[in-house]
Automatic annotation (TrEMBL):
Record key words, sorted: Cell membrane, Membrane, Transmembrane, Transmembrane helix
ABC3 transporter permease C-terminal domain location: 290-402
Gene Ontology molecular function: any one: transmembrane transporter activity
GO cellular component: plasma membrane
Transmembrane listed as a keyword: yes
TM segment ranges: 26-46, 283-307, 328-348, 368-392
One Pfam entry name: MacB_PCD
Protein name: Possible ABC transporter
Family designation: Belongs to the ABC-4 integral membrane protein family.
Membrane topology label: Multi-pass membrane protein
Compartments, record wording: Cell membrane
Length: 409
């Protein structure tokens, strides 16, 4: 006569069987361990990349706009940017746009900097005194470029802390002289650390008066005059950035006599954050999918081992059925075994993944992180995979004919 076995008894039998095959059980769990660890690590790294980009962009300022030459089409095709964004445009924006507080035109060029026997390549930017406030930079030593430096086109330079370290090692750079092209410049200031933006280390840059940049480094464009690399614009406040963007666009379209496509673009921190979030979000999703494939492979491994286990335990299953065990009892035992393997593997993989995420955050610039929600979902998925891939072996075990199974004894 068949009788219903208590769940506790069925679970005990499942645990006993797994203990009797410890090595095989560990190997079976390994796929789930690797899968869980992969998902958590890859998602953590993806979020770290997103956090890093967002942290860098936040340094730009919430109410700062960037006017750059060229439109989206030229940027996508890699066409050389036009030189028609000029100093007069920056002056017009400052004078005619009511929602704008400050304007910082900039010309940038990569040049070789020399001091004594040492030399290095660095980004040199010609700027005005407003650059420091608009871009939220700070001075660590000395001073920044002032209006007198710009009016007199003086040969003075302010350098980043990393550039100071490169050129002078443990010596003080303030007051020393460096050569840019064939010109000698006096270092009047050293910046506080600012960090990198889009792979450009701002702490290795150097800044000279915009007028000096034009007269001694880059020269004027014969067609457009003083061509700018871009213009940084500080709106009155964060709420006025949208209006400022609209007004700047209209003003430059009128000045450049544009009828169709713009030959410039106005970008805000919000625009950049949206683009970065889209890219890094897609990257994180892709990494999670790669980790998910590892979990799927782990589930297939559980199913394979459980099917082998069914074949090996034919006699046991036949004997239990002959003694009154029901199909449900047999299938439940195999499902419990699958669930235990996948759950333990999920917990171990989660621990490994969290440890890896912490190591990545400590040893790399990526602020890798993972939310508790993601961890919980990953563990649930691993358990679900165990149940799902344990169904086929459980059904096969439950359908075994006890007479046929007992004949093999």
């Amino acid at each position: 006569m068949k009788r219903k076995l208590p769940l506790a008894e069925t679970s005990g039998m499942a645990i006993k069987n797994l203990k009797s095959n410890k090595f095989r059980s560990l190997l079976t769990m390994l796929g789930i361990v690797i899968g869980n660890a992969s998902v958590i690590t890859l998602v953590g790294v993806g979020r770290g990349a997103q956090n890093l980009a967002e942290n860098q962009l936040s340094n730009l300022g919430a109410n700062v706009l960037f006017v750059v030459p060229g439109n989206n089409d030229t940027r996508r095709r890699g066409v050389a940017f036009p030189k028609n964004l000029v100093l007069k445009d920056a002056k017009a924006i400052k004078e005619q746009v009511p929602t704008v507080k400050r304007v910082a035109p900039q010309i940038s060029s990569n040049e070789v900097i020399q001091t004594g026997s040492k030399s290095t390549s660095s980004s040199i930017s010609g700027v005005t005194s407003d650059f420091l406030i608009v871009r939220s930079f700070e001075i660590a030593k000395g001073r920044f470029i002032n209006n007198q430096d710009t009016k007199g086109a003086k040969n003075v330079v302010v350098i980043g802390p990393d550039l100071e370290e490169k050129l002078f090692k443990n010596r003080e750079g303030l007051g020393e002289r460096i050569r840019i092209k064939d010109q000698s410049f006096e270092i009047v200031g050293v910046m506080k650390p600012k960090g990198a933006v889009f792979g450009n280390n701002q702490d290795e840059n150097a800044y000279i008066p915009l007028s000096t940049m034009v007269s001694r480094i880059t020269g004027k464009d014969p067609t457009y005059g003083v061509s700018l690399s871009f213009i940084s614009v500080e709106a009155i406040n964060e709420k006025s950035t949208k209006a400022a963007k609209f007004q700047i666009t209209n003003l430059l379209r009128q000045r450049h006599k544009i009828i169709r496509d713009d030959d410039f673009a106005v970008r805000s921190q919000k625009d950049a954050l949206q683009i970065v979030s889209t890219i890094t979000g897609g990257l994180t999703l892709m990494l999670a999918a790669i980790g998910g494939i590892s979990l799927l492979v782990g589930g297939i491994g559980i199913m394979n081992i459980m099917l082998v286990s069914v074949s090996e335990r034919t006699e046991e299953i036949g004997l239990r059925k002959a003694l009154g065990a029901r199909r449900l009892d047999i299938s439940t035992q195999f499902l419990i075994e699958s669930l235990i393997l996948s759950s333990l593997g999920g917990i171990a993989g989660t621990g490994l993944g969290l440890t890896t995420v912490k190591v990545v955050a400590l040893l790399t610039p990526l602020p890798a992180t993972i939310g508790l929600g993601t961890v919980f979902i990953t563990v649930i998925i691993s358990g679900t995979i165990g149940l799902t891939f344990g169904v086929l072996p459980a059904k096969r075990a439950a359908k075994l004919d006890p007479i046929t199974a007992l004949r093999s004894l």
